[in-house]
Amino acid sequence: MMLAQREIESGLAALGLQPGAIVMVHSSLSSLGPVHGGANAVIDALIEVVGSGGTLLMPTHPARDGRTFDPDVIPSDMGVISETFRQRPDVLRSRHPYHPVAGYGARAEGILSDHEKSAVPDGPETPYGRLITLGGKVLHVGCDLDTMTLLHTVEAELDLPYLRELEMKYVAENGEVRAMTIRRCPGGHRGGVLKFDRLFRAEGAMAVGSIGPAVCRLIDAPRAVAIMRREMSRDPGFALDENPHCADCVGYREKIARSSAGRPVIRSGVPAASGETLTSMLADEEFTLSVPLWTVDAETEKALDLVSAAGISSVEVHTNHQVDIDDLCRRLGDRDLNVVVVRTPFASAEKLAEACGIATGFNAACLHVRLPDGLKPAGLNGALERLSRAAEDGEVNVLVGNPVGVNPSDIAGELREVGSARLNMAYDPAAVAGSGGSPFYRGLYKGPVRRSVRHVDFRDVVAASGDPAVPGEGNAELVEILSNLRCRSFDGVFCLWPLPGASGFKDAVKGFRDISMRI
Question: Does the pLDDT of residue 100 top 90, yes or no?
């Protein structure tokens, strides 16, 4: 369904955005689904709601490509809405080369003025600092706190030891190219920032609602900053990830340890979700959590008992198991379990037709087909065409899984070219991480993958060794992926993979639960 500007206005007002507000907007246009009028309709809705006395601001950070920053020429790298806003003739833009801001409305000129004179990109004499002083708001449309630039204002205020210094150039108002030293500059990964979500909610600093499928957050900037200042004063590493294999966060914690030697660090803050079972945690989620049925043999009963006891209601089976459909359906029915996906390798037309028949026999929602490892780009379109024919002939929806050595963005792009309503994408972040890639920041964060993904293999891996890891303790960026897709009202499937060993299933469940409690 196409979202209209009036519906966006109503959603913003229901969230608590009022006339006269000063609001900094982080946004994802695609999270809203189809919008009549596109990005301009979203911008017009924001302007309409804040009114003539309000001020609309958007971060317009440029790509870090080494170019001299010219605010009139260099595009925003912060999404379609931000870039469309920047290009409007009546919108102003600050000249700071690291974190420039675009603005429109009653107080835009004063808020943006002299941003480039601040060596600290997010300090008190910047649009971010002034937003706090003026009692402004921060609005997230379809994106989570991972995009919240306001965090860096607090980091700079506290002069946290992992901030850096760098040199950049920008074009001054008179056309002169000037160099500047940027101090207390953020950079790198901050997975722990998502912990503030629970604190903001618990302490009344943030309202959460939906506009179409986009989950939106309206944050009171001064109250949020007070919370962040409190927690990061107690624990300078609060905004960092606990993941032992996140190179950025491990390095930052080492810097904190060196700078605060002998001083106590107080760790506290996030309200515990004690008493929450996996069943209760999944009750309000739109996605389905499944597990692959890792054994169909003498151990099947034990595996099914573990799944049922964990509160998971969906499983996935693989055609390699040569399952007896009627027998397995009976066993599943005894425990109120269902087969949501049938998995199969890419094969001949005959084998694919057989797999479609198995999926139909289980009444499964989808057939998951993993493409061959190392598939060449020249063969990708042909493979997808074959899958499209199999899906149409078998009347089954097909999820195309990314193998090792194949760029998921290439698969997503070809899926759009093939244009079959029965073909969507299954995403395996561990396959990307195992090849040295960044599954979220270079995969799902931007680009075509997140628009077509309907299934995510929730398994983690240590990139350096290839060893399986507890979810959230490897390099598959599962925390960010889960958080981001929830902001888009993801109603597909997360498939939770057991780790090797006797306790592997319980370890995976605990990892998933721990991640869910953090975000």
Answer: yes
| Residue 352 identity | L
User: 31 to each of 39, 412, 484, 489, how far by Cα in Å?
Assistant: 12, 17, 10, 8
Query: With pLDDT > 90 as the criterion, what percentage of the chain qualifies?
Result: 83
Return the SS3 of 134. coil
Q: Which of 410, 473, 475 is nearest to 447 (CA)?
A: 410
Q: Are residues 421 and 391 in contact, defined by beta-carbon separation less than 8 angstroms? A: no
Q: Enumerate the H helices of 362-491 as residue ranges.
A: 377-394, 408-418, 429-434, 449-452, 478-486
CB half-sphere exposure, 380, CA atoms < 13 A: 24
Neighbours of 167 (CB within 10 A): 9
User: For residue 268, is pLDDT > 80?
Assistant: no
Q: Which of 133-142, 235-244, 272-281, 282-291 has the highest mean pLDDT?
A: 133-142
DSSP H/E element including 14: helix 5-15
- What's the one-letter identity of residue 198? R
Q: Is the pLDDT of residue 60 over 90?
A: yes
% pLDDT > 70, the chain: 97
Transcribe 346-375 into DSSP letters. Answer: ---HHHHHHHHHHHHHTT-SEEEEEPPTT-
Whole-prediction pTM value?
Answer: 0.93
Q: Can you name the residues that pair with 104 across neighbouring β-strands?
A: 56
Would you say 290 and 312 are in contact if contact means Cβ atoms under 8 Å apart?
yes
Q: What are the structure tokens assigned to 256, written together? A: 């904190």
Q: DSSP code of 273?
A: -
